[in-house]
Amino acid sequence: MPGENLSRDEARERAALLSVDGYDVSLDLRSAVGDQAGDGPRTFRSVTTIRFRCNEPGGTSFADLIAPSVTAVSLNGRDLDPGAVFDGSRIALEDLAADNELVVDAQCAYSRTGEGMHRFVDPEDGEVYLYTQYEPADSRRVFANFEQPDLKAPFRFEVRAPEGWVVWSNGAGSESDGVWRFAETKPISTYITCVVAGPYHYVTDSYERVFEDGTRLEIPLGALCRKGLAPHFDSDDVFLVTKQGLDFFHDHFDYPYPFGKYDQAFVPEYNLGAMENPGLVTFREEFIFRGKVTQASYEGRANVVLHEMAHMWFGDLVTMVWWDDLWLKESFADFMGTFANVGATRFEDAWITFANRRKAWAYRADQLPSTHPITADIRDLQDAKLNFDGITYAKGASVLKQLVAYVGQDAFLEGARRYFKRHAYGNTRLGDLLSVLEETSGRDMGAWARSWLQTAGVNSLTPQVLLSAEGRVDELAVVQEAAESHPELRPHRVAVGLYRRSGGGALERYARAEVDVDGPRTVVAELAGAEAPELVLVNDDDLTYCKTRFDAGSLETLKSGLGDLTDPLARALCWSALWNMTRDALLPAREFIDIVLRFAGRESDIGVLQMLHAWAESAVVHYAAPEWRDRGAGLLAEGAERELLAAEPGSEQQLAWARFFARTAESPAGLDLLQGLLDGTATIDGLTVDQELRWAFLQPLTVWGVADEKALAAELARDDTASGKRHQVRCLAARPSEAVKAQAWAQVVESDALSNALAEATISGFNQPSQRNLLEPYTEKYFAVIERVWRDRSIQIAMNTVSGLFPSLQDPRTTLDAADAWLAAHEDAAPALRRLVLEGRDDLARALRGQECDARASTTDDLWPELGLPVAVTKSVQ
C-alpha cells in the first residue's frame, strides 16, 4: 500500500501545475464471463485518453493507475516505454506541453475486495455482476487518471460488455453492436465516476417538476438489483422516497438537480452503505429486505437514499479541494438526510433515531485517541480512508444542527443556495462556506468555526439545582466540562427541560427554557421559581452536541420511572445519556442493564428499542465485571424471552425481541425454544419465522454446539443464495472448536481467497463472547501479523482485518500489554495502522474502567456519592 499512497502536498503541487479538459474511457468487460486463462488475476482492457493543460510547459508530473500491466502509453503522439514510465501505481510524465493528450492502454484487474471494478458471481444462478466503487482513490484501479478531488473534468465512457448484459454509467447510455456509449458528464471528480454492468433486474419511473418560472424538469428514474433479489425488491417505496427527496431539495436549495437521470443500484458485497455517484448512486443490497423487518429499517434506508441525494449538491456539484474538508460533503449529507426524512417522508420522528443512534457513533469516535477536529488534518490517502468516521459524519451533522439553531434555518438554507450558485462544478474550502453564512446570518462565523470545527472532543453538560425551602427552584445552572486532552469549552444553544409526574403518573415536561451555555457555568434565569423538578434534562430537544449528565435526583427518577417519560425524544436522549455514563464508568453496567430490562419493553420507538438491545449486549460483554458477566448474560436472555412472549403478536416489537432473544439465548431451555421454532415443533403466536430469522436462530445454536456443519449445509441448501452463503460462513466460523478458529484465522489472515463480504462474515463468526478461552491464543498471533496484513492487502481489507480481529474479547490486561509493546516497537509503522491499534487499545482500556466500576457496585449500596454525581441542594432561605 505505501506505493499507492498520495500525499496532500503532492496533490497540491499537481493541481497547481495541471488542469484537466476531459476524459474518454473505454472498457472491455467481456472477460468478466467465461473461463480464465492463466494463473494471474482476471483482467479487463482499459484505454484512457486524458486531455489536460500544463501551466509550466516542459514540466513533469504523473498520472495514477493501479494495474497488473500496461500495454502502451502515448503522450502527445509520442510512444513511451511502459516499463520505464509505469511503476505499478504511477505513470511518469515528462516534458509536458501547454496542451497535452495522454493515452494509456492497460490491463486492469477485477476486484474481490469491493474496491475498483468488483466482480461477483451469484451462487444461486452463476450470473456475473460488476460494479465500481472508488472513494477515496480507487478509480485508478479501473482507468488512468489524476486521482484527486480538485482536478475535475467531464467524462465520456464507452463499455463493451458480454452479450445480454446491460451497462449503466453516470450519463444516459445507449447500445450499438455490443458497445455501450454514455453521454458526457458535467465536470466531476474521478472518485464519483461509476460503471455498473451485468444481467441486473431494472425498473424505471420518472420525476417531473414545474418551477415557478414555468420551466419543466424531467428526471428519468431507475432502480436495479440482482435477479435473485427481484422478488424482494420494493422499488415502489424506493421511488416514493426518491421523489419526495427531490421535491424537498428543490424546495430548499433553489438549484435544479444537475445530472440528468437518477439511477440507484443495489449491488452485492458492498463495503459501504452507499455512494453518491451522480446519476448512478450505488447501495449495499442489504437494503433490499429478504424478510420481515421493522420500520426502523425502512427509515434507515430512506435516510441513506436522502443522504446520497443531498450529495448531488453537497459533494458532487460543489466538491472539497482535498480530504481535509471532507465534512463539506459528508457532514452536510448526514444532516440533510435526517432533515429531509423528517420534512418530506413518513418518517417524521427521524430526529429521534439521529439522537439515539447516529450521535452514539459520534460520541464514541470523539473520545478515542484518534479523535480529530471536524476539519481534519489529512496528510495522505490512508488518512482520508480512515476519516470516513463518526466525527466526519455524525458529529459534523450534529454540529450543523447546532449551527441551524445558532444562525436560524432561513439563514442556513439561504447560505446553501448562494454556495451552490457561486461554486457550481468547482471546489471549495472551509472559508468559502463560512463567508456565505456570514452574509446570510450577519454572525461572526470565524469564532463559531474555531470552537466547533477546528477543535476535537465532546463537552459534558450537567444540571446543578438549588432548591428553596419552599421546594422551588432557587437557581438552576448548567455546568460545562471538557476532557483534559481536549479542554475547549464551546458555546452551546441548549434547551433545558423540567419534568414532573402528572396525576396519572406520567413524567411530563412542565417548564422549558433555551439558553446560550458559554464557559464553565451558566445560570438559566428563566427557570428560577419553577416547581422543584423530578428530572432535569439538559439539551432537551437535542439542539446541541454534548454528553448529557444528570443530578442525583434526576438519575433516581430515571432508575425508577424512565418508562414513564411520555415524550419519545426525551426518552431517547435519556437512554443515550445513561449509555454514555456506562461507557464513562459513571454508571455500573449492571445498573444500566437493570434499567433496560425494566423499561425497554415499554419503548414505543422501535429504532430506540433495537439500539437498547445492542447497548445492553455491549454492556454485558465489555463493561460488566467478569465475575458478574455470566449472570448479566442470563438476565438479558431471560428478559428477552419474557418480552418476546409478552409482545403483541405480529408487532415490530415482537420481531425485535425475537432477534434479541436469538442473540442472547444460552440456556438449554432457550436453545430448545429456538430449535423448536426452526423445526416447527414450537410456535409463537404472530411470529413468522422467515429465512432471515431462521439464520438468526441458527447462529446461537451453532455457537453453543447444538447445530453442526451438517445442519448448516442443510440450511444453505434451503437458501442457496449469496445472502445464505454469508450466513453459513459466519455460522461455520462461530462453532466452538479450536480447529474451527484456526481455520477461520487462516482463511482471513493467511489467504486472500475470500471476497470482502465472506472475509467480513468469517471475522464476525470468529469473535464470540462465549468463546473467550478459544480466542486467547490469538492475541500474540494478532500483533505478529498485522504489519504484514497492512503491507500486503488492499487498504479496505487491511482495515477490516486489523479492526475486526483486534483481541478485544481476550484477557484485557494481556492485550493491553501486548498493544503497548507493539506500539512502542513500531513507532515508524503506517500512521493509519497505528491509529487502528490505538483505537482498539482505547476501547479495551475503557472497558476495563467500566468493569472496575461495575465490580464496585457489588459492594456499594449507595453508589451515587461515590461516583461523584452532583446532587440537588436545598438552600436555606432566611
Specify the overall morphology.
Answer: globular
Q: Report the helical percentage.
A: 40-55%
Number of helices: 29
Strand content: 15-25%
Mean pLDDT: 95
Sequence of strands across the biggest β-sheet: 5-4-7-2-1-10-13-12
Class of secondary structure makeup:
alpha+beta
| Low-pLDDT residue intervals, each spanning 5 or more residues | 861-878
Q: Let me know the number of strands.
A: 29
Q: Which terms would index this structure?
A:
878 residues, alpha+beta, eight-stranded mixed sheet, 29 strands, globular, disordered C terminus
Describe the protein.
With 878 residues, the protein is α+β, with helices and mostly antiparallel strands. The protein is 43% helix and 20% strand. It contains 29 helices and 29 strands. The strands form seven sheets. The protein has an eight-stranded mixed β-sheet. A five-stranded mixed β-sheet has the order 15-16-17-19-18, with helices on one face. Strands 22, 23, 26, 28 and 29 form a five-stranded mixed β-sheet that branches. Strand 22 (460-467) and strand 23 form a beta hairpin. 51% of the residues are buried.
How do the strands and helices of this protein lay out in sequence?
Layout: H1 8-17, E1 18-28, E2 43-54, E3 61-64, E4 69-75, E5 78-80, H2 82-85, E6 90-93, E7 99-109, E8 116-121, E9 128-133, E10 155-160, E11 166-169, E12 173-176, E13 179-182, E14 195-198, E15 201-210, E16 216-225, H3 235-253, E17 262-267, E18 274-275, E19 280-284, H4 295-311, E20 319-320, H5 327-344, H6 350-366, H7 381-386, H8 391-407, H9 409-423, E21 427-428, H10 430-441, H11 445-452, E22 460-467, E23 473-481, E24 492-501, E25 507-517, E26 521-523, E27 535-540, E28 547-548, H12 552-561, H13 568-583, H14 589-599, H15 606-623, H16 626-646, H17 652-664, H18 668-679, H19 691-703, H20 709-718, H21 722-733, H22 738-750, H23 756-766, H24 772-775, H25 778-792, H26 795-804, H27 812-825, H28 831-857, H29 863-866, E29 873-874
Parallel strand pairs: 1-10, 16-17, 17-19, 20-21, 22-28, 22-29
Antiparallel strand pairs: 1-2, 2-7, 3-6, 4-5, 4-7, 8-9, 9-14, 10-13, 11-14, 12-13, 15-16, 18-19, 22-23, 23-26, 24-25, 24-27
